[in-house]
Design a protein that fits this description.
Number of helices: 10
Strand order of the largest sheet: 2-10-9-8-5-3-4
Order of helices and strands: EHHEHEHEEEEEEEHHHHEEHEEH
Radius of gyration: 21 Å
Helix content: 25-40%
Strand content: 15-25%
Largest sheet: 7 strands, mixed
Shape: globular
Number of strands: 14
Number of domains: 2
């Protein structure tokens, strides 16, 4: 389904973000009574047979959607992607070791700050010197040899940039894919761990998907608190303690929706069309709108731009809201405007927004 229905408006929020309408309809039913059990999904024991089935199907469908090889474990964690900033450093920066980090925006800056509390960090690319307007090519990366891992963010929500391809590294590669996971195919040969907060492309806030190579789990040190130890969580199948049951359920429903819509190939084609409409409208009015990201690194999920003045930006927000468009204000660290158009954002909504971009420029 690619259109909005009923009394719902166009939700351009960067996260928590829009969810597929069929998923929301199914959740309405399952909150009350899932699988004829007489009990809603939020009320079932995390060790009972109904949730056993939910968890099993969610893992299986996640593997199908992402074409995830068997050598990777699929985990569901709590705490949001921000907890991973410290957790991965606790697990994988050993004594005397250093990790390479690529700083391409606000969230990588925060990841670096948290990792430095745990161990040694080498900033192999400092995007602040170019105001984070692009993601680096390999020749811009100054990585140290013998690092415990390299960390990067595939899509930068605030600045509207993305890596067209994963950077190369001799060290294990760890990627924050919170804002573009399952919007396109993932080359698993180039990654050892991927993590993503659910609230942009997968489900509700507070739940995290971690896909981690089993050999990397062997590097987790003994002595960590159990709930911060990837290997301990994997050994218990994401049920070391009570997991975020509703978040896992809803992710599972999103995976089923992606599969029913044609999988990642269809998602990628659809996302190219959606973003293309908006970028075309912006580029066609380049004397009125300014896009932030360099063209080579433009995100398909988050489009950051501005008009000629802050006053016009304010008028843009006011007029778009009257047309049922919400969440278009830019992040406080960048300002301006931003449209976030994740997998579940309807294609016809992008067409309507592109028309508004054209008409707003023409009338102002």
């Amino acid at each position: 389904m690619t259109t909005t229905t009923g009394d719902r408006i166009l939700n351009f929020s960067a996260g928590p973000a829009t969810l597929p309408e069929p998923v929301l309809r199914q959740a309405q039913t399952d909150l009350w009574n899932i699988d004829g059990s007489g009990i809603g999904i939020c009320e079932h024991s995390h060790r009972g047979p109904v949730f056993d089935t939910v968890l099993q199907e969610t893992v299986e469908d996640c593997r199908k959607v992402g074409n995830i090889p068997d050598e990777f474990e699929i985990l569901f964690l709590q705490g949001g992607a921000s907890l991973q900033f410290a957790m991965l450093a606790m697990n994988f920066i050993g004594d005397g070791q250093t990790a390479n980090y690529l700083d391409t925006g606000v969230w990588t800056t925060k990841a670096i700050k948290e990792a430095k509390k745990i161990g040694n960090v080498h900033v192999a690319f400092d995007g602040s010197t170019c105001n984070y307007d692009h993601c680096p090519q390999d020749n811009e990366i100054d990585a140290i040899d013998g690092a415990s891992y390299m960390h990067y963010c595939s899509n930068n929500t605030i600045y509207g940039t993305r890596f067209a391809n994963a950077p190369t590294s001799n060290a294990p590669m760890i990627c924050d894919m919170s804002s573009d996971i399952f919007s396109r195919a993932i080359n698993w040969k180039n990654h050892d761990m991927v993590y993503a907060g659910a609230q942009k492309n997968l489900g509700p806030s507070g739940t995290v998907l971690v896909v981690i190579k089993k050999t990397l789990l062997d590097a987790c040190p003994s002595g960590l608190p159990s709930t911060l130890d990837y290997s301990a969580i994997a050994a218990k199948g994401s049920r070391l303690n009570t997991p975020p049951t509703f978040g896992i359920y809803l992710m599972g429903q999103v995976f089923k929706w992606i599969l029913a819509e044609g999988g990642l190939r269809e998602m990628e084609l659809r996302n190219e069309r959606k973003a293309g409409m908006i970028y075309h409208a912006l580029d066609s009015n380049s004397d009125f709108y300014t896009t932030f990201a360099r063209e080579c690194c433009r995100s398909r999920m988050n489009i950051a731009f501005k008009t000629r003045s802050p006053e016009l930006d304010a008028s843009f927000l006011e007029e778009s809201a009257k047309l049922g468009m919400s969440g278009l204000k830019g992040h406080r660290d960048l300002g301006g405007l931003r449209s976030s158009i994740y997998n579940a954002f309807p294609e016809d909504g992008c067409a309507r927004f592109a028309e508004f971009l054209e008409s707003f420029a023409a009338t102002h």
